[in-house]
Amino acid sequence: MINKDLVVIGGGPAGLAAAISAHENGIKDILIIEREEHLGGILNQCIHNGFGLHTFKEELTGPEYAMRYVEKVIEEKIPYVLETMVIDLDEDKKITAINEKEGVMEIKAKAVILAMGCRERPRGALNIPGYRPSGIYSAGTAQKFVNIDGFLPGRNIVILGSGDIGLIMARRLTLEGANVKMVLEIMPYSGGLKRNIVQCLNDYNIPLRLSHTVTKIYGKDRVEGVTVSAVDEHMKPIPGTEEYVECDTLLLSVGLIPENELSRKAGVYINPRTQGPIVSNTLETSIPGVFACGNVLHVHDLVDYVSMEAEAAGKHAAVYLNSHEEAKPDVTVEAGNGVRYTVPSYIDTKILDKILTVRFRVSGVYENQYISVYFDAKRLYHKQKRILTPGEMEQVLLPNAWFAQSPGLKTIRICVEGE
Amino acid sequence: MKMAEKRTLTCINCPLGCQLQVEIDGDKITVTGFSCARGEKYAKEEIMHPVRVVTSTVPVIDGEVPMVSIKTDGEIPKDMIKECMLALKDVKVKAPVHIGDVIVSDICHSGVDIIATKEVAKI
Fold first, then answer.
1. What is the pLDDT of residue A301?
2. What stretches of A100-170 adopt beta strand conformation (E)?
3. Do A175 and B15 touch (CB under 8 A)?
4. Do B12 and A59 touch (CB under 8 A)?
5. Element (DSSP H or E) covering residue A245
6. Which residues of A fall within a CB distance of 8 Å from B14?
7. What SS3 state is found at A201?
8. How sure is the predictor about B15, in pLDDT bands with cuts at 50, 70 and 90?
9. Cβ-based contacts under 8 A for chains A and B
């Protein structure tokens, strides 16, 4: 059994930033465990630019953004292992990991940061009738084929789902010479960022068909085509709207799911809305000393915010290791009208930062509505937003002073409302 | 008197995607809705002279991985994207490759270099 002060599970953007932050806050006995051959996580295949504007005040590609953190980890000599898979975590923070060289290893950690990221929803989650031919990929898999391995997954492509990876891949495949016929979105609005719709679809005249989905896949060995149907307001296909579209490849960009098998095994409470751990303001899960950050906690759309969140998790893990004080949350954060979830869910008002960032997503598209924050019955924040969409994460900053002026505070409610 | 033309653009400078309202009245372009100076600059340029950063990959010879990611080291005119991709079609580089290494200088006489965005060690 190896003993470690802090084990960070996952060497992507969240894990790297968390480890660096814990190190800066005085924790030296750290181990980052990464299952891939390289540190950096999914950023390594995100070769497009637009990362780091908030963190570094410049526009970087994914690999460049990752390298800033990898270099820091190497410079600070923060230990890490690659090609090592954590297969078990228990409530006593005992970690079981395996790799080819050392076989099975057991590590007892005083604190753990969960930074395993998320994975894509697969075809199986969609129940599309048809055969199981080759040529159906998740958008991220296609991205790995093109950007890491150098293969084009197909020539005539239909993309189901207008999530950001799907939009990015529509452009990427077009630039590599494929014919991207259309992007279908079952919802009446896109789940992707506006900029990606402009930059990846409009620039290349790729049609985005809202309220449409794939209702059948044709082809026995290889995809030969799909049936595309319009859907009603309940997302049910409308009979008579079916249209056959010939293609050899169907990409799915239909959502991301935080990868919490380990968290569940350990007994961490999971928020059914985010599929990520329920955390307090210190990003501590229901198990003392186990923290979570990045896409394993809730799916982000900006890596900059992942880094910021991870930095906070690293700092709070260091505070925990130095004080061994357990958080005792005394305030509940409630997702009110129009808000799907909030991170954190609980606050320990004795361990407050100067400003507490609450991140959340709205549950629908709202125009010219207000985001409000209520401290019990008292409204302390009320700001109009031109547009709110579920595809873009929102945040409110709660200054320490608001807590100081609210003795006996029980509930903070964040909601979308009119004037 | 000709009415001013109004257009709504989505800023692409960062993932925030600000909605920009642009009013074009002859040579006068008025932009509102931006949250940083880059937004205003982008809207004006997008109307007068649209540009993009292009990112792609090229194969690496003797590299620890088969591909290296690349980008235009700055923006190129939007109508040059296709020409730029065609010029990169047969480009291969030898490992080792470092971030910032020039892969193709002055791509398609745009005045912009193609540079590597990833470290690839030699095997």
1. 86
2. 103-114, 118-120, 136-138, 156-160
3. no
4. no
5. strand A243-246
6. 50, 53-54, 59, 195
7. helix
8. very low
9. 85
Position A127 scores a pLDDT of 82
Mean pLDDT score, A275-284: 97
Check whether B14 has a pLDDT greater than 60. Answer: no
Q: Report the residue from A50, A67, A193 with minimal CB separation from B99.
A: A67
> Which site among B57, B64, B107 would you substitute to test the A interface, given the most A Cβ atoms closer than 10 Å to its Cβ?
B57
**Which pLDDT tens digit goes with each residue over A50-96?**
899 889 999 999 999 999 999 999 999 999 999 999 999 999 999 99
Helix (H, G, I), strand (E, B) or coil at A164: helix
Q: Which residues, including other chains, have CB under 8 Å from residue A71's CB and lie 6 or more apart?
A: none
The residue whose two tokens read 């993009």 is B52
Buried b (16+ CB within 10 A) or exposed e, A401-415: ebbeebeebeebbbb
- Domain spans, chain A: 1-119+256-326, 122-254, 328-419
User: Hey, which residues 56-115 in chain B have their CB within 8 Å of chain A?
Assistant: 56-57, 59, 65-67, 69-71, 78, 81, 85, 99
- CB contacts, 8 Å: B70 with chain A: 47
Residue A112 neighbours by CB under 8 Å, 6+ apart:
A6, A7, A8, A9, A89, A93, A95, A289, A290, A291
**DSSP for A350-382, written as a single string:** TS--SEEEEEEEESS-EEEEEEEEEETTEEEEE
Fold match, A1-119+256-326 / A122-254:
yes
Q: What is the pLDDT of residue A126?
A: 84
First to last CA, chain B: 69
- How far apart (Å, rounded) are the C-alpha atoms in residues A188 and B54? 30
CATH assignment of A1-119+256-326, among 3.90.76.10, 3.40.190.10, 3.50.50.60, 3.40.50.2300: 3.50.50.60
Contact A67 B19 (CB under 8 A): no
Q: Is the pLDDT of residue A135 over 70?
A: yes
Task: Tell me how many helices (H) and strands (E) chain A has.
Answer: 8, 29
The predicted pLDDT at position B2 comes to 59
Q: How confident is the model over A216-238, as a mean pLDDT?
A: 96
Q: Which amino acid is at A220?
A: K
**Can you read off the two tokens belonging to residue A262?**
């380990």
Asked whether residue A212 carries a pLDDT value surpassing 50, the answer given is yes
Please tell me the predicted confidence (pLDDT) of residue B45: 85
CATH of A122-254 among 3.30.110.170, 2.102.10.10, 3.40.50.2300, 3.50.50.60:
3.50.50.60
Which residues of chain A does B65 touch, with a Cβ-Cβ cutoff of 8 Å? 148
Lowest pLDDT segment from A21-30, A135-144, A334-343, A388-397: A388-397
